[in-house]
Design brief:
Radius of gyration: 18 Å
Distance between the termini: 24 Å
Low-confidence stretches: none
Largest sheet: 7 strands, mixed
CATH architecture: Alpha-Beta Complex
CATH class: Alpha Beta
C-alpha cells in the first residue's frame, strides 16, 4: 500500500526472444548468474510500494518459471501470454482485476521482463507521477537528429527537444488502463505501448526520468551490453552484489 492505494505490477514475459540469437527465450538466459526474468521480477519483489505481481509467460515455459518463482512472496498469479504483447498485457490486467478489491482504486505498473536493470528511482518516479497525473512513462531524451521519411526521402526533421524514447515501467490506474485496452481491442487498434492506448482516449501521461542503462534486451548485442552495465553496477556497490534495483 502506497499513498492509500495498492500498487501492483504486470510483468510482460511472454515473448519468444527470437532476436536474442539463441533458441532459449531471452528472459530465461542468465545475466551474471541469474536469469533475466528473475532479475526483473525481483525489482518488484523487493520494492516496498509493490503489493503483488502478475507474470505473463509463454505457456511452454511455465514449468521453468515455476521453479524460478517458487520462493517469491509477491506472486499473485501467472497468466499465459497471447499472440501479441498488447494482448498479453490485457490478459494480465484482467487476471489482476479479478484479484483486487472491488470498487477500490489500484495502480498498476507494466514492465518488460527484458528490462532487468531498472533503478528504484525510475520505479519511484513513475509511481509518484501516476498518482498525481493518472499515468506515467519512464523515458529518455532523443539525442540524435530524427528524420521522417516519405518514399525513402527525408520529408521532415522534427524538433528533437520534444522527442523521447519510451521505456518501462509505465504506470496507470488499473481501471483506466483496462478501459483503454478494451477500447483498443474493440476498435482493432494496435498501439506501440500501453501509454499510447491511454493517450488516444485523451488521458494524460507524464514523462518521468528513465535511464540509458534501463535497456531492453532484444538482441545478443543488447545482452552483452546489459552484462557490462550490470557488472559495473555490481563493482560499484559496496558489499557486493545488491542486484540492479538499488539507487543508481
Amino acid at each position: 500500500m502506497y499513498r492509500n492505494a495498492p500498487c501492483y505490477a504486470v510483468l510482460a514475459a511472454g515473448g519468444s526472444g527470437a532476436r536474442a540469437g539463441t533458441g532459449l527465450p531471452k528472459q530465461f538466459r542468465e545475466l551474471c548468474g541469474k536469469t533475466i526474468i528473475a532479475r526483473a521480477f525481483e525489482l518488484f519483489e523487493d520494492h516496498p510500494a509493490i503489493d503483488g505481481v502478475v507474470t505473463v509467460i509463454n505457456q511452454r515455459y511455465a514449468a521453468e518459471w515455476a521453479k524460478i518463482s517458487r520462493n517469491y512472496k509477491k506472486t499473485i498469479t501467472t497468466v499465459n501470454g497471447e499472440k501479441t504483447r498488447q494482448g498479453s498485457v490485457f490478459a494480465g490486467l484482467i487476471a489482476l482485476k479479478t484479484r483486487v478489491a472491488a470498487n477500490k482504486p489500484a495502480l498498476v505498473l507494466i514492465h518488460d521482463a527484458a528490462r532487468p536493470l531498472t533503478a528504484y528511482s525510475i520505479i519511484n518516479g513513475v509511481i509518484d507521477a501516476a498518482f498525481d497525473c493518472g499515468g506515467a512513462v519512464a523515458a529518455v531524451p532523443v539525442t540524435e537528429t530524427v528524420k521522417i521519411s516519405a518514399g525513402g526521402f527525408a520529408e521532415q526533421t522534427p524538433d528533437r527537444d520534444k522527442l523521447f524514447f519510451a521505456q518501462t515501467p509505465q504506470a496507470f490506474w488499473l481501471d483506466a488502463l483496462i478501459t483503454a485496452h478494451e477500447t483498443a481491442a474493440q476498435q482493432g487498434f494496435a498501439g506501440y505501448d500501453d501509454a499510447s492506448l491511454i493517450e488516444r482516449l485523451g488521458g494524460r501521461v507524464k514523462l518521468t526520468a528513465g535511464s540509458p542503462d534501463n535497456i531492453k534486451i532484444t538482441t545478443n548485442n543488447d545482452f552483452k551490453s546489459a552484462e557490462l552495465i550490470l557488472r559495473q553496477i555490481i563493482s560499484n556497490a559496496e558489499g557486493g552484489n545488491h542486484g540492479p534495483g538499488y539507487e543508481q
